[in-house]
Amino acid sequence: MKTWIRNNFSPAEWLVGGTVTVLAVLAWVLGTGSSGTLSLLKIFPVFGLVAFGLMWSHYTVGTLRRWSGYEKRGKDIYWAVSAGLVLALIILHPVLLNISLVEAGLGLPTSSYFAAYGNVDGWFVVLGTIALLVFLLFELHRWFKHKKWWKWIEYAQIVAMTAIFVHGTWLGNETTNSWYTVVWWGLALTLLFAWVYNWRYDKAHVPRR
Amino acid sequence: MERRNSKTIWIIATVVVAALLGVVAYVLTMNRQGSSTTTTNTTQQKTTEQPEAPTADATQGSQAVTITFTDEGFATKNYTVSVGKEVKVENNSSMQLQFSSDDHPTHTEEIELNLAVLAPGESASFTPTKVGAWSFHDHLHDQYTGVLTVTE
Fold first, then answer.
1. Do A36 and B147 touch (CB under 8 A)?
2. Which CATH code for domain A2-205?
3. How far is A1 from chain B (nearest CA, A)?
4. Residue A72, Cβ neighbours under 10 Å: how many?
5. Binding-site residues on chain A for chain B (CB distance < 8 A)
6. Which run of H or E residues covers position A47?
7. Number of domains in chain B
8. Domain that holds residue B133
9. Which of A113, A139, A168, B117 is the most exposed place for a label (fewest CB within 10 A)?
10. Pick from A67, A82, A75: which is nearest to A15 by CA?
């Protein structure tokens, strides 16, 4: 198994990322996407679903790389393309929502979130916004990844992923009311497994900074 | 080799982002074109009464129509009514119901459909004045959806 992954690493990571993307899009097409007239408010959730799936693939593919002992050769096209896509999706997801809320006369965030979703659900939208800001912080890795404090930004990404899972579970339609619920929880469980594996791996292999 | 990889990445990324923006622009344009209807007058009444049995056939055409909400969602997905005829919404479930026009959560597709929160056993009615196929949902449980077609 390890040998197969080492020999087919690039196709394997595309397969993993492609599968989670197709599943997310399919869940949306069969659910929210097929009810009533298509609008920005109906489209924006699928961007969040796909973004979460691709971020999940970054953690799991990274874990597979470590587990199989695969050594990177040159630039990883999958990582670069999917990272760019995730960035576009996590920006578009709230932007489309906010355009719709402004067009509906509900004003700007965060008051528009509470006006649209109510006092309880509004907080879960705010939680998603905070997680988005944490994800955007990661983009600073180009300049700061060698700094001593950078590990805290990486830990914050794990907290943000957890926050996004809670955000999606509370607010999402496909994540709670369709066959995709099983996939969603499957992603969460494998993500947890990947985090534990990576934590143990770092403890054993990476010298303390 | 690395330079070629970089070029491929940029081409793929540009195509994907352009496609995403294209979808957004298309939907925005479609929405602007589709929102050209006229508003006249709507009447809404809210009553508390014993719920009746769920309506079996909701496509009643020119007759008044009753939309029944149960613990499994709306009893029927599609309803048809003529302009000016009363639409009654009955909450026969054990949950609260906030009958609302699409889209969730702004409810702006057809505001005549938007009702106040109905407790279990409560009902409310409204009289549509615009012809069209209006999607609706329960704002409190937005997975429950349906379509009200208003004819001449």
1. yes
2. 1.20.120
3. 28
4. 9
5. 35-43, 47, 74-75, 77, 80-81, 84-85, 88-89, 92, 96, 100-101, 103-104, 106, 116-117, 173, 176-177
6. helix A40-68
7. 2
8. 45-151
9. A139
10. A82
Q: Give tens-digit pLDDT for A89-125.
A: 999 999 999 999 999 999 999 999 999 999 999 999 9
Cis upstream peptide for B102 (omega within 30°): no
Decide the pairing of beta strands B78-82 and B87-91.
unpaired
Helix A40-68 vs helix A150-171: crossing angle, to nearest 10: 130
The alpha-carbon gap from B135 to the nearest alpha carbon of chain A, in Å, equals: 5
The closest alpha carbon to A84, from A131, A142, A23, belongs to A142
- Does B65 share its domain with B125? yes
Kindly tell me if the per-residue pLDDT of A126 is higher than 60: yes
Domain assignments of chain A as residue spans, ordered by start: 2-205
B19 and B51 within one domain:
no
Model pLDDT for residues B29-84, shown as the tens digit of each residue:
555 554 433 333 445 666 665 444 444 445 555 689 999 999 999 999 999 999 99
Nearest CB neighbour to A85, from listed B16, B30, B104: B16
How far is residue A154's CA from residue A159's CA, in Å, rounded to a whole number? 9
Looking at the structure, tell me whether residues B31 and B50 fall in a common domain: no
Amino acid in the structure at residue B11 = I
- Which of A36, A77, A85 faces B135 most closely, judged by CB atoms? A36
Closest CA to A96 of A16, A27, A42: A42
* The two structure tokens encoding residue A137: 């912080």
Burial class (CB in 10 A: 0-12, 13-18, 19+), A194: buried
Please indicate whether, in this complex, the C-beta atoms of B105 and A36 are within 8 angstroms of each other: no
Shortest CA distance from B27: residue in chain A: A39
- Residue B79, strand partner residues: B148
Average pLDDT, chain B: 79
Residue that has been written with the tokens 């690039």 in this structure: A10
pLDDT for the residue numbered A2: 84
